[in-house]
Amino acid sequence: MKTIEGDINAERLKFAVIQSKFNNFITDRLLNGALECLRRHNAAEDNIDIYKVPGAFEIPVLAEKLAESKKYNAIICLGAIIRGGTPHFEYVSLSSSLGILNASIKNLTPIAFGVLTTDNLEQAIERSGSESGNKGYDAALTAIEMAELFSRL
Fold this sequence. Notes:
Layout: E1 15-20, H1 24-40, E2 48-53, H2 59-69, E3 74-82, H3 88-107, E4 111-118, H4 121-127, E5 128-130, E6 133-134, H5 135-151
Parallel strand pairs: 1-2, 1-3, 3-4
Antiparallel strand pairs: 5-6
């Protein structure tokens, strides 16, 4: 029996990071976490490109375009969708998550989901660098491991 898994070494890998500008007081923290993770695991600054989009709804189309380009070993998507008083939260959350998933599957490119979907601002703060860690860091770690795994296939 053979077990194949990716290492956590970004040394030779190229990454795209897509950051939603909406709720940037949260997404800036996610971006900082993602960059900290990439640097900690040997990613070269020249191998990290950061793209900024207006909101989480716009992330999937750019993820699709970047995955299609085959320029990157992995893509990291960062956003913060915080529930309000209307059904808008459900539409944006579902569209964003399914769009990112579809871009990954269609292009056979690892795309890490670092888009927070929270009931309130406090939860978003907790998940972007407080009590619950930093989901941007976690998404970058997933991207590294999946890109490294793909390189072994």
